Structure formats: structure tokens, C-alpha cells
Amino acid sequence: MNGATRLVCCRRPRTEIDPPLSQVRDLPKKKNTTIAPGQEAYEKSCAVCHATDKMGAPAVGDKETWSKVMEKGMDQVLEKAH
Questions:
Q1: What does the buried/exposed string (b/e) look like for 24-46 if buried means 16 or more CB atoms within 10 Å of the residue's CB?
Q2: How far apart are alpha carbons 50 and 14 in whole angstroms?
Q3: CA of 19: how far to CAs of 12, 22, 24, 27, 67, in Å?
Q4: What are the strands, taking DSSP E only, across 1-82?
Q5: DSSP state at residue 46
Q6: pLDDT digits (tens, 9 = 90+) for 28-81
Q7: What are the tens digits of pLDDT across the range 45-54?
Q8: Which of 1, 26, 31, 59 would be 53's cystine partner, CB 3.0–4.6 Å?
Q9: What backbone torsions phi and psi does residue 2 show, to the nearest 5 degrees?
């Protein structure tokens, strides 16, 4: 071997008759991790009323309206949410 070290599984070379178990070199697909915590719950339960103000509920991002709602207290807000 001309002084070179050769690492081979079980000290025998692989052949076409004895191939590796798999030629696949890809990894499992990752789940979408870009979703913010709570976003899925919001989309299933809250977005129907809060995506816009057309349903009478304050829209997400409308700070002025939300500040008026929050003045009533969290208990009142949660009671109306259910």
C-alpha cells in the first residue's frame, strides 16, 4: 500500500456485490419552526373575530382599541372571549 493507511470496514473493500446498506444522504424534513408560539392556536380560535374589526372584536395590532378594552380588566376581557 505504499505506506498509506487504508481504513476499510472489516478490513475488506466494498464492492458492487457488497454495497453499503443505503446510498441516501438526505436528512429528515424539518417541521416548520417559523411559527411563533401561540400562532396556531390564534389561527384556529381567535382569528375569526380578531383578524379585522368587522366582527366587533378589536383587531390584532389596534393598540388604541385594545387599551380601552384592557381598562375593563383582564377578567372582563376573558369572560367576553368565551
A1: eeeeeeeeeeeeeeeeeeeeeee
A2: 62
A3: 12, 8, 12, 20, 67
A4: none
A5: I
A6: 777 766 778 888 888 888 899 899 888 888 998 999 999 998 999 988 888 877
A7: 889 989 988 8
A8: 59
A9: 55, 35
